[in-house]
Design a protein that fits this description.
The structure is a homotetramer of 314-residue chains. With 314 residues, chain A is mainly α. In chain A, 47% of the residues lie in helices and 3% in strands. In chain A, α5 runs antiparallel to α6 (127-135). Chains in contact: A-B, A-C, A-D, B-C, B-D, C-D. Chains A and C meet through α1, α2, β1 and α7 of A and α1, α2, β1 and α7 of C.
Chain lengths: 314, 314, 314, 314
């Protein structure tokens, strides 16, 4: 093969960050001429092309909407939806998003995202740096389970679709009956197969189990809201049914907060990675509250344990 | 002096983070015995004392409220207020907070907080790491002006208080008359003195001026909402008057987004540093939206300019 | 199964960070009693058990060595080796590590790790925050290739071992003959098989190809040093032979800096993830140099492109 | 004043990061034409102008030196000097830098920079993210004292200069006599005045005192190396004398690691902010070592204290 083709084939991950995928301004965008007068300026403008916002002198449009038409006329949760999805949600769906965002704001200093932000707040960095420090820890293991659980639920739902696209089933009463409802049709058999596949890969089933709470107090209220919305036809209910079926299969292990919020985000149509993004926005609130509280407590360079306790020497 | 007293006097900033201020569990808290059985465990528990949340098996209380009583019953902006202030706001005040949070979510890729998050999203790190990268840049110069402007406004208001605590004055029409209203009493003279003091220290007057917009489209809607709230007695209006007076004094330089949001946060009683904290929560939304968009555009290791443009060698 | 066994089985990724693996003080450590007097203090001490350093009043031991015996008596690269590996390297091996660390310090503002740090330096955050911002981008795609390439080379070497553990082969002249040497025995056949397996999984072969340099000026000097060390018996040379064989198989695609440093780190026995860790230490130098330079250039809130160029609206 | 002048006067901190200082390619650089053909490309190239490195296809020059001439021919500490200062140091001065870098690599899990990195390593983020998390905490209070101490020493030295620039004095024996030597001339009177000014501003005197060590084991070896270098005329010794004089004035409070390294960096001519930058490079080693160790210990979502200890509820 020619050298150019060979380079394409094993392009490599580009260690020094100097190569980029050929592209126009963005997905579906038209590449403008990058030769001719001011080709460099055009290339630079296209390099930073975006559909999220348009900012020009005296103009701020967010997802196509002038910002002055949004201030005072849209809630913060709705705004989050607009910025991520490109359109405004109806009030019932926005309310579900809002409930999920409220549910995940904090879990106290045992959560490393909270603890590190508190410690940062005593080290003479800005409050934004303390918050960023906490958010940086919301990785695959601490916050990533919601994303994984959305994928899990989507697998069950995708496999459950009958010829008419109907996933069937009645979720039952999610508050008193963890696995209630008619599972004869719908996600029943598919859930078992998917669970088996996931457990073969990794002993963790994202969204289920919790080593701190035997029954997470956030589960019932969240799932209750989803069930109501499903009854009213605001959401389809398929992901809820899938989650309840999994919970029944693995009983007595309960669904946890990642699972409950995954149900909400999946029902609302958010792609799996945004389950983590939304958890980030939610948890940032608790991270900020804790960093702020710590900054008023007078400690300097706060470590994880009091100075009277010395780490064990191995 | 004794060695101990000497050490106290020049304690130093504790380079290796092994000394802490003597303290009990927290502001106003009672220090429990740190001797006796399990003194270490008690010390460690007190080390992480907090009033923000109480987390125990099957219990999650946020600022004293069981989380299951909040889910679906409180908005996200109200929740932010509750977590930061320890109590729920009334709906009119919550609406002002919500408007301010909505106003600051994004300003496009020219904003370094947005650009770095987009770049991070192409480097094979998690979405949370991309968001954290952006938030980390919201420092004294990029996001810090709101905090500084709150202090500026508080100085004017504090100096304007007459014997009865009345700051007087009528803000006039904030949309058409930048400095309207009766400035004979109230903040007039005080504003001029404060502005002179601030300008003597630093040529930047936080909250005013903008090199991109001649008139920021976010100013009028935000100030209009504050003016309405002041008319309805929801907020006092003193910080609004102060800001308008400053704007009149330095005309034709307009108030910018930091100034307008500072007016909101100050009227709502948030301490100055939380103006930055709230800007962090707001801007995180745009940072996430941009990082998410970039992650779908196929670039790898995206630098600031296209590879066709080589940095100038000095 | 019992509830406890069920909880173990699907323990989940522990969304709120309150569960931990049962463990004693650390690998190979002995769990001390966590009941009895001051069980909490002991538990907290064990929670932070480490073999890296022992710090007590007036005592600092790093990997068992008193710090006062190291200052002025050990080089920085040797110190890095000691801290990561637990023992001091011989001078020849230390020299190889030093060469690799020197090679990767910088690749200019096109590298996102460099650009974001420069931008951070204009936002009013500390120099440490600017450096952290850059380091945060050294993820799987920008810096992760070295780690992946070490794994690739280890696969070839492991498969090449004959009954006597001999990987055979003579690397030839690495500077003029990219794939020279006797490949009849040794890694030849194994390399082809491994390359085929890796290409089936992902089109990127880590460590090879570069969209910016047709021949990376860092490759020859690094590989030359490894070849000399192999001739002198300082390193085995097996990973070098494997890399050269791969390069010959995929010619004309050259080995890049990730590949060359991977050869060094693998020959020196560093586990694959530390290839990324060492790249972090190296690139931190360039990140700091650039952040420092930018901080002296007077810009505020520097975005990725000059304000005269507006991002394209999609 | 005109609107433009008014805008200049109160330009503000540029909330949205869209204005920049007018500038050419960099300090002392010549602004190239930003009109005419490809003005945008030229502007973008100048926007990222740098003297640190020049990177073009098949060319990598670091501070003007081809990288292939550096690999294997320069030590890592020397490389750090070259990248930061733009020229290579002589071996004696490089050795001092190396000693200071070695001295600060770690101080165990009590140091928040170490603890947060260990916690991050259990949260499913990359090793680079764990290191970045730790580095992000090296702020004004945890790592910033070295920078402050350099400024303190520079103030004493600047005030001590007699007409001939001679700061006089003989440091004495730094190991056994903390404040020995002839302080009659030299920094004596100036030190007292400077100390008084600093203590009036802030109770902390950066570089002195330590709440963990009564005598930091790193002080004597570092200062001993500087004293030898001063005797041999490798460094002037003025900052060492100043530090010893301060230590004598505030006895029995000892110099700590920030003070000792500040002496080294100041003697070597590093600007104060780079004292923090160099501490960042040094401490990154310990941060990496700890993050790496933790990643092998099997914990997930490690919080600051074991789950058996619940934070105190205030």
């Amino acid at each position: 093969m020619s050298e150019r083709e060979a380079a394409r084939a094993v392009g490599g991950p580009d260690p020094d960050g100097t190569a980029r995928a050929v592209g126009g301004p963005g997905v579906g965008g038209t590449a403008r001429a990058t030769s001719g007068p001011d080709a460099g300026g055009t290339a630079a403008a296209d390099w930073w092309a975006t559909a999220v916002s348009r900012i020009e002198p005296d103009v701020i449009e967010l997802r196509g909407q002038p910002v002055q038409d949004l201030i005072g006329r849209i809630g913060f949760a709705e705004m989050i939806w607009l910025m991520l999805r490109g359109e405004r949600p109806d009030p019932r769906r926005a309310a579900l998003l809002e409930a999920a965002l409220v549910s995940s704001v904090d879990h106290g200093p045992h959560a490393p995202s909270i603890a590190v932000a508190r410690m940062a707040a005593t080290c003479g960095v800005g409050l934004n740096n303390a918050v960023a420090t906490g958010v940086n820890l919301l990785g695959d293991v601490h916050g990533g389970a919601g994303e994984q659980c959305v994928r899990l639920l989507e697998e069950v739902v995708a496999g459950s679709r009958g010829p008419g696209g109907d996933t069937g089933g009645d979720p039952g009463d999610v508050r008193t009956d963890p696995g209630g409802g008619d599972a004869g049709s719908g996600p029943g058999g598919e859930a078992a197969a998917v669970v088996a596949r996931w457990r073969a890969r990794d002993r963790y089933l994202p969204g289920f189990g919790h080593r701190f709470h035997s029954r997470d107090p956030r589960r019932d209220p969240l799932l209750g809201l989803v069930a109501e919305a499903a009854e009213d036809g605001v959401v389809a209910g398929a992901h809820l049914r899938a989650a309840l079926e999994i919970e029944r299969l693995i009983a007595p292990v309960p669904m946890n907060i990642d699972g409950a919020t995954a149900v909400v985000y999946a029902e609302l149509g958010f792609p799996a990675p945004l389950a983590r993004g939304l958890f980030v926005l939610s948890r940032s609130v608790g991270i900020l509250a804790h960093a702020w509280e710590e900054s008023g407590q007078g400690r300097r360079n706060k470590g994880p344990i009091p100075p009277s306790i010395l780490p064990t020497w191995i």
